Amino acid sequence: MADTPATVALNIGSQRIGMAVFENSKSGGLVLKAYDSESIVADPALEASRVSQIRIAVADLVQRMKVSKSKVRYAISGQAVFTRFVKLPPLQEDNIEQLVTFEAQQHVPFPINEVVWDYELIEGSGEKEVVIVAIKGDALDEINTVVNDAGLSTSEVDVAPMALYNAFRAAYGEPQETVLLIDIGARTSNLLYIEGKRFFTRSIAIGGSAITGAISKEYGVPFLEAEHQKIANGLVALGGGHTDQLDESVAALAMVVRNALTRLPAEIARTTNYYRSQHGGSAPSRIILAGGGANLPYTLEFFQEKLNLPVEFFNPLGALTVGKGVDTAVLQREGHLMGELVGLGLRGIGKSTINIDLVPAVVEQSRAADRRKPFLIGAAAVLLAGVGAWAGLQFLAASNAEKQKRERSEASEVLAPIESEIRGLLKKEDDIRAIASRYTNAEADHAFWYDLLSQVRGGFASDAVWITELEPLNGYNAASADPKLGTGRSVVKPDFGTGNYGNSSLAVLQDEVPTAPVRGKAPAPASSSSTINAVRLKGFWRENPKSQNVVSELLKSIRENPGLFTFEVKGADGKPVKGADGKPVVLKDEQVIKNLAVTGEGGELALPFEIVLPLSREVAVK
Tens of pLDDT along 223-248? Predict the structure, then answer.
């Protein structure tokens, strides 16, 4: 591994946190060794918890990918930085640094001593041009602290549009025609105009969250439910009677998505005019789509219709080799989301075109210390050379040492009471951290149930099926030979509907087999179970063309997008059970559907069904 050092890349988006590990191949190319991602909530109402969400997501990725204590190159979103392209007058090379500093002071909308900034020279149309990128120092330090708290040390800090450009150049070269790369994120869309070696970028405050917000406003539902509806049923309506062939509710949702997305082509046209008039560029002749906002069905066709240009999805994977153990199916599905990670990986092997580095204060201090090391080593050498001359002064040195020892002993006695106080404060700090951790975990479990209810609503969104009861279960195991353990125990009291106001509705759960008493000692109390690992759904289905199969089809849609649920069989150690083919064993429909009435006694308006869905993680009962 010494000749092929790994590069850890981290892309911090508004709703998606991606991480990848790269290595340098023997031929000098880039090899992808691992890839994973986490999603966070982009709800504007939860902006205050965004930093905490990023901290948890990054820590989870570091743990799963086993890259703790590694150096990381990470990219921050274009929305978080100020970017400006500036043309320079003809000057000698040794004057560029001073001129760019002057231009930064003129264009950056904050005092220059309060920001972290960098620049890069760009080949223009016969003129020298630079791109200046700046971010508030305290905002960068906050992000960097989150990264460092996850067990990573900072190597370089890039900006998403620049990393995306590096990935494009490595995968597509230098196109002679003008290419417009549209990166649709959660909150913003980055527009990159690439023309030969030239490029121009602009961030627009329109993204996937704007579509979710439009759905939330149109249907009067919370942001999280609107997001689940967009993912589960959303698509972009096209012109020419496209929605006539769709279900009425799906067509209405598609029109809401289209109306929200229509603002983006208008901003693209405005930016294209600015690029042509102010930077002497040409209108784009090809469109490439990237980012999570391009995942909605018919997004590509929508831009073809609006921009009247050929459109394709971004594929940065042509710039690298996929290593063993990487799931190629995931790469095929999410390749257009990995541009920033590939660009950061290219930085690690020295093959990037644009090299922006926003240096946090703590990293700058570390680099300054590294720069001083040669001088310190030289000073140490001089000191060692003079040791021989000090031999005759050993007696005096010993006397001085004894004096200093007495002085330090006296100082130690003075500081002893303070040491006790400091230790007490440190213990108090640890106690406060433990309390804060419990609050953070409780909030995560609280948000889990909102997401679960929203997923259930989306997964069973049908006019032929409705849910009447959702019951959390403890100790559920569908594949267990023990029927009691397989059934699970309800955490809700039987008198939930008739209990007195103010009383807890949670049942007190205890282990089925108490610990055997020891002679001469009081019997040990039964231990309380405190987690939920499944939910039981009860409801009814009414007559429809698919009959009772409508329930199975809805279950199939949840299997395809399990989200907070899991259908993998787990062993006693909590790990997935693998079959003879080495693949995880999956629960069958008959193990999930506990009751599905097909016929009644006559006259019923609907027939009952019961489904038990295991959760992807255990949730604490508070």
Answer: 989 999 999 899 999 987 777 888 88
| Strands (E) located in 328-487 | 465-474
Kindly report the backbone phi and psi dihedral angles of residue 610, in degrees, each rounded to the nearest multiple of 5, phi listed first.
-145, 130
Long-range contacts, stretch 571-579, CB < 8 angstroms, 24+ apart: 577/479
595-610 pLDDT tens trace:
888 887 777 889 999 9
| Model-wide pTM > 0.70 | no
* End-to-end Cα distance, the chain: 47
Question: Contact 12/38 with Cβ under 8 angstroms?
Answer: no
**Distances 430 to 149, 422, 424 between C-alpha atoms, Å:** 16, 12, 10
Q: Amino acid identity of 359?
A: V
Stretch (H or E) spanning 118: strand 115-123
The residues, any chain, with a CB within 8 Å of residue 39's CB and separated by 6 or more, are 15, 16, 17, 57
Q: What is the pLDDT of residues 373-417, one digit of tens each?
A: 666 566 656 666 665 556 556 767 777 888 888 888 877 777 777
Report which secondary-structure segment, H or E, holds 110: none
Q: What is the DSSP track for 273-325?
A: HHHHHHH-----SEEEEESGGGGSTTHHHHHHHHH-S-EEE--GGGGSEEPTT
Contacts of 87 (CB under 8 A, 6+ apart): 124, 127, 128, 129
The first and second tokens of residue 425, run together, are 């404060």
Number of Cβ within 10 Å of residue 60's Cβ equals: 15
